[in-house]
Amino acid sequence: MSQTLETGYVAVDGGELYYEAVGSGLPLVFIHAGVADSRMWDAQVAHFSPKYRVIRYDTRGFGRSKTEAVSFSNRQDLLAVLDHCKVDRAILIGNSRGGSIAIDSTLSFPDRVKGLVVLGSGLGGFGSEEIPPDLVEPIGKMQAAQEAKDWALLAELEARFWADGPNQPAGRADNAVYEVVRSMTYENYINQPVEAAAQPLDPPAIGRLAEIQVPLLIFIGLLDEADCVEAAKYMAEHVTNAQYVAFPDVAHMVSLEKPQEFNRIIDEFIDRNHL
């Protein structure tokens, strides 16, 4: 039986957010990485929409969403998507920057969150500002490309860094994974000329993990950037109801590299916690 795909835009202060919703039942809301847009979840939409209501959206400044040069809250933007889709409580699933948004949103409006899944996630307040010695060269190349506004080169460098993994050989990840990250990153750079300023959660999440009372599922690829790997371990140790899943041969984009395993583990997580 075919399902009706709902698409549209959610009005927010100084912008509008593109979203898609399909299926019915328990709502799953997917929040993309900073080197992607909502298309990174294609395999998850196909897998989960026959059983659940699957919602994905482009965060402000990414994909088909639009913004003015304003100060804004990613948490309030997510809340606007939930309200527009008439979702009382959802499982939030976020990759990288999207994981950080999911965590911060769980802390900001816990009554709207039923469960939390993060992969290669950032964690507000975690990590050092200093660049590790082994990353000085690749990050320096990315900064130079950004300063030169060489968006094609920057997208290639970022895709190698995040898809293959820092200091991994080019082509370690499947070329399809590299290419989807590269193309989404490039389109974000050329199609989003205006930069809005995201307001950080204050106080940051690192000191508030005990407040997370919903089941938490943490995915990490051990070839990911060191701060992401350490943040995943830290969350596993400091959140009461946390499950930690590590893939030794995967980098930042767990759901793209291991979609079948990723989907299966989420199904088991939902069933085990009676969500």
TrEMBL record:
Q: Which SUPFAM superfamilies match?
A: alpha/beta-Hydrolases (SSF53474)
Cellular component GO terms held in the UniProt record: membrane
Q: Which UniProt keywords apply?
A: Hydrolase
Q: Where are the transmembrane segments?
A: none
- What's the domain of life for this entry? Bacteria
Q: By its UniProt entry, which Gene3D superfamilies does this protein fall under? A: alpha/beta hydrolase
What name appears for this protein in its UniProt entry?
A: AB hydrolase-1 domain-containing protein
Which organism does this sequence originate in?
Answer: Herpetosiphon geysericola
